[in-house]
Amino acid sequence: MKKNYRIAVLPGDGIGPEIMQEAVKVLTLVGEKTGVTFTCEEARIGGIAIDTDGTPLPEETLKLAKESDAVLLGAVGGPKWDQNPGHLRPETGLLGIRKGLGLFANIRPANMHSSLVDASTLKPEVVSGVDLIVVRELTGGIYFGEKKRYDGPNGEVAEDQCIYNEQEIERIIRVSFDIARKRQKRVVSVDKANVLESSRLWRKVAERVAADYPDVELTHQLVDSCAMQLVRDPKQFDVIVTENMFGDILSDQAAMLTGSIGMLSSASLAAGSFGLFEPVHGSAPDIAGKGIANPLATILSVAMMLRLSLEMDEAADAVEKAVWAVLEAGHRTGDIAADRSKAIGTLEMGQLVRDELNKILN
Ligand SMILES: NC(=O)c1ccc[n+]([C@@H]2O[C@H](COP(=O)([O-])OP(=O)(O)OC[C@H]3O[C@@H](n4cnc5c(N)ncnc54)[C@H](O)[C@@H]3O)[C@@H](O)[C@H]2O)c1
Ligand SMILES: CC(C)[C@H](C(=O)O)[C@@H](O)C(=O)O
Ligand SMILES: [Mg+2]
Questions:
Q1: Residue 201: its pLDDT value, please?
Q2: Does residue 252 carry a catalytic annotation?
Q3: What is the Cα–Cα distance from 184 to 196, expressed in whole angstroms?
Q4: Which ligand has its closest atom nearest to the C-alpha of 297?
Q5: FRET partner for 325 with CA separation of 20 to 30 A, picked from 230, 245, 246, 349?
Q6: Among residues 51, 118, 212, 224, which one is catalytic?
Q7: Which ligand is nearest to the CA of 82?
Q8: Ligand 3 centroid, distance to 282 Cα (angstroms)
Q9: Which residue out of 192, 213, 238, 335 is catalytically annotated?
Q10: What is the pTM of this model?
Q11: Domain map of the chain by residue range?
């Protein structure tokens, strides 16, 4: 563990700055309590960068991220920019920073905290005790394949190419097995091998890698069936590993098992310990500027950063404990409140977490 860390802070758009403010305050408190200095340097990404710099990923943002020990990101996008064809192309914005930093492994845990069972729209007996991780390949597949638009005999044609090579598949499968080894030792590899060639290669590589992990059970599920099983019996899952787009969809679905997408944190890791940490949710334009967004997914992303990139496991545990304590005491933002009239705002939720953290780290 070092005594000084440089953290690139990219609040982004919509609720991004609101939730990021609370996350940075939590990180600052961790610094004060542990004697570690976090130098947080802010930079623009997403819509705000399009407006100010004319590009969603200014060069200095990528440079800052590369020079930092870890990156914290809020959310990007919104109706004003989503039609801009450059905004989410492979080389720009969120996808550009993922590729530019080599963040191939996206880790998205979905744990149902016991005090939040009532926030889920699913039956308590189905969701209580859910504890799974979606390991999503993040820098390949259809997101990054060649895109084309041209005129054909039946009108305009659009193409998105989906490509995976063995090396890309192998490294993400290994990440999932390494994680499973420390958990229930069960990996479900999700694909569409009955239709897609890229999925057939995925399955072949998964089988090959599994031979190196005899202690971990590997099963395969087709993505449509997995989507169904996630809602029917989510407790069957320990680690799900899958390609980029399937992981995007399944992780939002898994988020709802836990009550709200406002609870789900994520880590996007490169080889080694460098990572970018962000909530799974987006910029929530419908609630931006109202001060009601749930900051817990971003605060829990800080915990993931402390554990996975900064070797500060104890501080990570403390942040998580503080979040659970606040929930156990019954405090809720609107997205997780059974009674919305009693919901608290973003700032209040952040303050409550820091109050608990103060007690835990004393
Ligand atoms: N990683 C990212 O930056 C990221 C991820 C997903 C979507 N997006 C972008 O965000 C924009 C909006 O997308 P969307 O509406 O499909 O998804 P979203 O996740 O922003 O919002 C979906 C719903 O969840 C709610 N929600 C999300 N986060 C919340 C929070 N912290 N607290 C309370 N409620 C919350 C929103 O109010 C909305 O009703 C789009 O431009 C999209 O491209 C960005
Ligand atoms: C905004 C979008 C490009 C992004 C993705 O699809 O990866 C988001 O949905 C996510 O899950 O982080
Ligand atoms: Mg998504």
A1: 98
A2: yes
A3: 29
A4: 1
A5: 230
A6: 224
A7: 1
A8: 7
A9: 192
A10: 0.95
A11: 1-104+270-362, 105-260
pLDDT (tens digit per residue) in 241-298: 999 999 999 999 998 898 888 999 999 999 988 999 999 999 999 999 999 999 999 9
- Residue (of 244, 303, 239) closest to 275 by Cα position: 303
Ligand 2 neighbourhood includes 94 CB (under 6 angstroms): yes
CATH superfamily for 105-260 is Isopropylmalate Dehydrogenase (3.40.718.10)
Q: Ligand 1: does its nearest atom lie under 6 Å from the Cβ of 259?
A: no
Measured in Å, residue 254 CA sits from the centre of ligand 2 at: 14
What is the Cα–Cα distance from 264 to 92, expressed in whole angstroms? 24
114-135 confidence digits (pLDDT tens) = 888 888 888 999 999 999 999 9
Which are the contacts of 304, defined by CB distance < 8 A and separation ≥ 6? 107, 265, 266, 267, 275, 277, 316
Chain centroid to CA 196: 26
Using most ligand atoms within 8 A of CB, pick from 15, 94, 106, 298 the residue to mutate for ligand 2: 94
Class of the domain covering 1-104+270-362? alpha beta
**Same fold: 1-104+270-362 with 105-260:** yes
11-28 confidence digits (pLDDT tens): 999 999 999 999 999 999
